[in-house]
């Protein structure tokens, strides 16, 4: 096992332990997670020099100002190259903490403790860090692997329902890009999953993160294979920023657009398209939107960091549990699909 591959899935924080000595530990969290877990977490670390920095919940904290404030806090409190940064929270906390850890004194050790489903199955895995610049998502960032990832599965039981469902959008994605049989599991075990049955949660988290780890090990810097993880993201990021939707909800809409485009181009058949639409509906995930100008979404897509040489780089399904990367999709085809999905209201 290498850095970034080591994941512990536990039912609490009691088994959390450090493998190295650190002169100081900085826990970066948000105010909501701090209220729920910080006392229990700090108690289990069993370290004297533990500092806590809490940010406001939400995407707005992934910005240069907050990043700068944390760096100043690190300097004022004497964090050194022998210090450790722990992210305790969801994707925003993890992305921001990772960027701080990768750049402070040219890099200090990092551990992720993701507390949301989205972070446990996606954002904490693979070493991506990042902050936003205005409406442009993750345009500043690094690849930086954590020492390990510690998943407390029972933190999922304190999530708001919408936040849990948002994470399920990324869980479904793994079946769409890598394992079509996983889709069948999600359908046949829907009640247990939505009831937060512990064994079902452990299964979907373990299955999802192992798929992502396998992909990342083959292509850490996203030169080819890793791009398939972006299914629905090129469409979805525009909706997320302009429509102010959660990441998972925006990605479920974006994935529907990708499937609609693939259907129009005859990459997939109608049965598969209908099956995927039904999965999203069964989990009460959105597949349409309103109130956003289609050309505005297209403009955001043009500025996506995954594109190059004025070409759109889109991940589209090509069969059951299979996707491919296309760079020859025409602008009018993309705009047409956005309009179709929007007008389904």
From TrEMBL:
Keywords: Amino-acid biosynthesis, Aromatic amino acid biosynthesis, Cobalt, Cytoplasm, Lyase, Metal-binding, NAD, Nucleotide-binding, Zinc. GO terms for molecular function: 3-dehydroquinate synthase activity; metal ion binding; nucleotide binding. NAD(+) binds at residues 91-95, 115-116, 128, 137, 155-158. Residues 167-307 form the 3-dehydroquinate synthase C-terminal domain. InterPro entries: Dehydroquinate_synthase, DHQ_synth_AroB, DHQ_synth_fam, DHQS/DOIS_N, DHQS_C. GO terms for cellular component: cytoplasm. Zn(2+) binds at residues 170, 233, 247. It catalyses: 7-phospho-2-dehydro-3-deoxy-D-arabino-heptonate = 3-dehydroquinate + phosphate. Its main location: cytoplasm. Gene3D superfamilies: 3.40.50.1970, Dehydroquinate synthase-like - alpha domain (1.20.1090.10). It comes from the Bacteria. Binds 1 divalent metal cation per subunit. Can use either Co(2+) or Zn(2+). Pfam families: DHQ_synthase (PF01761), DHQS_C (PF24621). GO terms for biological process: amino acid biosynthetic process; aromatic amino acid family biosynthetic process; chorismate biosynthetic process. It is found in: Cytoplasm. Pathway: Metabolic intermediate biosynthesis; chorismate biosynthesis; chorismate from D-erythrose 4-phosphate and phosphoenolpyruvate: step 2/7. Its cofactor is Co(2+); Zn(2+); NAD(+). The keyword Amino-acid biosynthesis applies. Residues 54-165 form the 3-dehydroquinate synthase N-terminal domain. Its EC number is 4.2.3.4. Catalyzes the conversion of 3-deoxy-D-arabino-heptulosonate 7-phosphate (DAHP) to dehydroquinate (DHQ). HAMAP family: DHQ_synthase. Belongs to the sugar phosphate cyclases superfamily. Dehydroquinate synthase family. This is 3-dehydroquinate synthase.
